[in-house]
Amino acid sequence: MANDLFPQEPARPAPGQQGDIVRLAAWLIVVAIIIGGLYIGQGVLIPLAIAFLISFALSPLVSRLCRWGVPRVLSICIVMATLFMLVAGLGLLVGSQLRMISAELTTYQWTMRQKIDNLTDQFRGPGIFDGAIQTVDTVQKELSDAVQENADEAEPAQRVQVVAPPRPPLQTALEWLVPAVAPLATAGIVLVFVFLALLDRGDLRDRLIHLLGGNLHRSTDTLEEAGKRISKYLLMQVLVNVAYAVPLGLGLFLIGVPGWLLWAVLASVLRFIPYVGPMLSAIFPVALAFAVDPGWNMVLMTIALIVTLEAISGNIVEPFLYGTSTGLSALSLIAAATFWTALWGPVGLILSTPLTVCLLVIGRNLPQLQFLDTLLGSTPVLDVPTRIYQRLLANQPDEAIEIVDDVIEKEGSVTEFYNEHGLALLRLISQDYTGAARAEHRLRVAKGLDEVLDDLQQEYPSTVDAAAPPRVACIGGKWEVDSFACEMLTHALTLKGVAAVQRPAGVVTARYVDKLDLDEVQIICLGYFSRKPERAIRAFIRRLRHRWPEKQIVLALWNAPEDLLEPDRYQALGADAAITSIEEGVLRIEGLLQPEASRDRSKAALPENEQQRIAALRATRVLDGHAREDLDALAKRAADVFDAEISIVSAIDENREFIIGQSKDLPGTRSQDGSDMITMPRAEAICDHVVATGKTLVVEDTDRDPRFADHPAIRNWQTRFYAGVPLTTGDGLVLGALCLLDRNPRKLEDEELDLLDRIAADAVSVITGDDVIAPEPREAEESSATVGQSLPD
């Protein structure tokens, strides 16, 4: 009754929800205004877009002429005049070919009529629909006869004919001139915009940076990336189209299709139109081959030629020239083409990819517009562990196995997968175990992960003799997640030839410990994902020590705080060693089982070209210290750029390592020949692994890598991070390494490693006196899209 008399007010959204709704509405209004402005202002915006697109393509040529000492205005005039002459020449060529073909069309009429008549005769004859068609014709004839009889009986109607007055000659001329002048006016506006964009490029860049606002670094990166991507996209598009048109023209010439040069030029131009262009370019030569040849050989050969060239261009030429993806997914490419075509017509279709690339670059560099990167980008928005976790939650273990196989095929090692992605996956599972996960989710994840690990163990079987007694036992500390991590470690150990087994986790009681069957085992590894496992570790180790006091115990602290990894902390709990990753676990356990053999394996092997390498190093005379000042400056620059504590340039001969460049004064043994360089025996060389492999080596935490944890130079310089890039000559000989060292663990992104490669190339140029050889950039992350358009990175 009270509710009827005093009705309750409807629930109001929370203040935070109200703010979200208002922001969403504001964004929708802004988007609607922008789209409306693009549609209404297309008369001005289309020439501007075309002009900027052309200026992106011509800017590298203008810059090259300016670097050669040609004034900028003259450089622009030369480039634009050259472009105009090329376009005019193509126009004259196309016009002459069209005149020739139009003059010969009358000779092809009889062939076309005869071929069409033959096709008609072949399709003429009784068919399953002939009865229905005859019935429809009969009814239609009767109706027309009835209408005609009624018309004859009616009075004849008087016809009125309206004659238009003659139009003035001026009006007729305007009707002809306006459609012809409009494209010419647009072309003139585009040329003016191109000239101004090339002339005031710096001023336009400054104004765009001011409009983008915010972080100056991000704005600069946005413009630089957009210009680089679009310029290379257009250049590669031209090369791809030419690589398609040349063999097409030659093939049509050999087949005998008239106007082969015209169709080759037309194909190279029409292929700038996404999706539609290749089909349009194929229609004309096929149609002409149909008209010329009385038979079908020319038509079939032309179709076969076009299909073959399309397959070669799409699968060989484009991947080779483009190299990497535009960053646009296949779905976003199609959606962008549809959107810009609906907005600006056929010109929008041509401009769709460059304009969408600009939006993607803006979204990548401006935090406020990062949703554009998510919507348009082809790079996975979820990392590998999250993708696998989602497939397990969705009860799709087969898809999770496919992801795992792809990652292992790319990285080349099951141990690397476990180390980089497997443990991260288990951390995600452990974080949600008592939180967001429901009982059904936990069951799906557990069963799915069992299938994934079983598949890996079958595909990559153990290298240990099945009859060999186990030397290592891995035991999960508490949760099922701990057991999964131990299963990964066990598999990684067996792949390295270490006899290891996994024991089931359980409640740590005296009965459970007695059933573990660890008499033949030498090392016991206990794994924990808990952030505070001290109490559980202490109780478990106490029982293990009581039952097997001679066993060595290793703690696998996958998620524990860093202070627990200090030797005094884990030794106080009764453990002999502690590890934090699968790779470290394999190295530590190998070292405990065979200390001498492990030390030998940790030493770097000699390169195959050791003698040539040393001869090339001696020939540079860099060990005499003649390039010390320049190399010190490069080392100092590297340390400043990467904000690292220490940067060194080292060279290694047959017996010693020489620090030939350093960013700061370092302790160490000095050479006695007057060069005052720090030297160390080659057995203790800090860069020997880089020289041996010729590959970049990054150790995020040297305390966790047995090769560096006890290294004399690492301890002497008190560093915990190491990154070494080989100093490789043009002949492929590694003279030494450029190294970064820091007092704290850290990571380096691929872009930072590319930058370090460039500094190393400068160091090689200083050492050898040769020109700088630009290093190849590292491969970008693969696209998540199965189909995409390529673009240079």
From TrEMBL:
Transmembrane segments: 21-40, 46-66, 73-94, 176-199, 238-266, 272-292, 299-317, 337-362
Record region (Disordered): 770-793
Domain spans labelled GAF: 626-777
Main localization, broad class: membrane
Pfam families noted in UniProt: AI-2E_transport, GAF
Keyword Transmembrane (UniProt): yes
Keywords assigned by UniProt, alphabetized: Membrane, Transmembrane, Transmembrane helix
Protein topology in the membrane: Multi-pass membrane protein
Keyword Transmembrane helix: yes
InterPro entries the record matches: AI-2E-like, GAF, GAF-like_dom_sf
Location(s) in or outside the cell: Membrane
SMART domains: GAF
Family: Belongs to the autoinducer-2 exporter (AI-2E) (TC 2.A.86) family.
Protein name per its UniProtKB record: AI-2E family transporter
Organism: Paracoccus fistulariae
